[in-house]
Amino acid sequence: MDKPLTIAVCVGEASGDLLGAHLIKALKQRCPNARFVGIGGARMIAEGFESLYDQEKLAVRGIVEVLRHLPEILKIRKGLVRQLTDIRPDVFVGIDAPDFNLGVAEKLKAAGIPTVHYVSPSVWAWRRERVNTIIRQVNRVLCLFPMEPQLYLDAGGKAEFVGHPMAETMPLKADRTAAREILGLPSEKTVFAVLPGSSMGEINRMAPLFFQTASLLLQRYPDAQFLLPAATAAATARLTEILAEPEFAKLPIKMLEKQAATACTAADAVLVTSGTATLEVALCKRPMVISYKLAALTYAYVKRKVQVQHVGLPNILLGKEAVPELLQHDATPDKLAAAVTQWYDHPEAVAALEADFEQLHLMLKKNTAELAAAAVLEEAKSAH
């Protein structure tokens, strides 16, 4: 009897679990009897996935945290490679988490198992030399952004643009009135959203700066309300501590559990730390000011390595500075408040930006899971 098609998948964190669940659903439609095995989270397990290890053990952020858990992570990686080499899946799909997954892929590819990496690392932004390493480690890369595949093709690899899942799940027209109703906010109120980032390092650097900016905005707009979505329980705890400091204790800031898209849609303007969140704000069609600060030495190193004119995803994708970026020395409360005010005081500029963001949304909106499933099956067949 033929063994069923076996697809190995490995994800490192919650966002990967969601991509993985969508991919498994799309693959099951084409191959109802397929077996899915590897490392996955709750959403993938709900789709019938067999997880050989607890996915939470891989969701470690920050250098110190990673170092502390490194022996365990390496042990899991070794065990996973050993088990998958025994199982001999038809294809291995590493979803995001490149530091973990590309190492697994390299060993499986050497053992004759086709490998796919789903979500290209930001090679277009910095450390472009990684492209050559990645195409040695995997047979194919599935990219979320349209400018990525060419880098792999130019280096002799296989890659394609499958669209961004966020562009599929978010509405093309953002409903500000509905978002305000959900959050219990009057339609005419001045509302700003503040997104200082999700990792502890980002929160510690950016939250005080953003709260100082909020104080300045409050002087200009005394009835303003600030929304602060927190991604995790740890983020909520740390933000609560910072807000309890005397200089911030009186700020009218409403903390929300997750709900970032609702908060951004409801806001007149958004102050956001550079990262994936900037794309979410763009898909909410809201004006934003992007900021980032790093330790001085890290910044000097990164600045030398960065190969793009802009750091914010909306600006990179649109190929122009559609929204202001205030980084490092320019990231001051005065400059940030002035940039937010510019948006608030110029509705005609906001209307033009909304049109740009709608174009961006359409550019990224594809049938992502279907395209990814087709590519994965193509690689699986290539081995036979």
From TrEMBL:
Q: Does the keyword Lipid metabolism apply?
A: yes
Pfam families for the chain: LpxB
The EC class name is transferase
Stored Gene3D superfamilies: Glycogen Phosphorylase B
Q: Cite the entry's keywords alphabetically.
A: Glycosyltransferase, Lipid A biosynthesis, Lipid biosynthesis, Lipid metabolism, Transferase
Domain of life, per UniProt, equals Bacteria
One example of the protein's molecular function in GO is: lipid-A-disaccharide synthase activity
Q: Give the matching NCBIfam families.
A: lpxB
Query: What is the documented function of this protein?
Result: Condensation of UDP-2,3-diacylglucosamine and 2,3-diacylglucosamine-1-phosphate to form lipid A disaccharide, a precursor of lipid A, a phosphorylated glycolipid that anchors the lipopolysaccharide to the outer membrane of the cell.
Alphabetized HAMAP family for the sequence: LpxB
Q: Which family does it belong to?
A: Belongs to the LpxB family.
Can you name this protein? Lipid-A-disaccharide synthase
Give the species: Neisseria chenwenguii
Q: Identify the coding gene.
A: lpxB
